[in-house]
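Exam revision sheet. Question 4 asks you to relate a sequence to its structure. Input first:
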Amino acid sequence: MKEDVDVLLMGKNHVRSLPFSGVKNFRDLGGYRTRDGRSVRWGHLYRSDSLHKLTNTDIKLLTSLNLSVIIDFRAKHEVEREPDRLPTDVKLLKLPMEDASTKVWHEAREEMVKNMRNLDPAKYMVKTNVELATKFTPEYILFHRELLAHNGRPMLFHCAAGKDRTGFAAATILKILGVDWETIMQDYLLTNNYLLNAYKWEFFMARIVKGRKFVEGIHGFMKADERYLSAAFLALEREHGSFENYVRNGLKLTDKNIEQMKNFYLE
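Answer key, structure tokens:
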């Protein structure tokens, strides 16, 4: 099933990307059609990048979403360096994941920047996504339990860029709900519309100062690439035999759980 750009970016009386000033990649997962003819409810599932730069106006907008919980996938050191700025009355659940790319940027940032022209970002990002589908299954079990526990009430999940840890979570939810792979991938790639476009000026200046190869390296880490998300799903299929087996044996979701999720998030 292929959805056109208009449907991917907005729905009737709804927008895909919400107008926050201090967040670049805050999106509603609503409106995507499933194979059985239903669609994901708007205003129930949100994905985002880090919330540490929220303005006072942003806080009011976030409050208006009536979120029952915010789930933060960032590693401990990321949270300590850039703590989320949140409304006082919303529940926060931390499910920290320090994947391959997050770990190397934390432990060897200066070396990474120094050698950026010679790095292959895809090597790190593919490894990161494989880890999301294998190493961090316990965290995603807790994530899906939280989805079920909130009975369809609005919730937000995020990491630093809203791309990999968040992107894998969004992709698994959409696939469980019955959205086709092409649409799931298009949602994943929307990060490039919002996050990368927000840094066009910084890329331009870096190209002048640091050169084309440096910018291509940074761009490779920041962008959503089909190879990255595909690597995650290929890894879970290798480990479990199929996505369905991953859902049942990896995420520990029963047929009843899956039906509950569909009742909560589809219309």
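Marking note for examiners. The radius of gyration is 18 Å.
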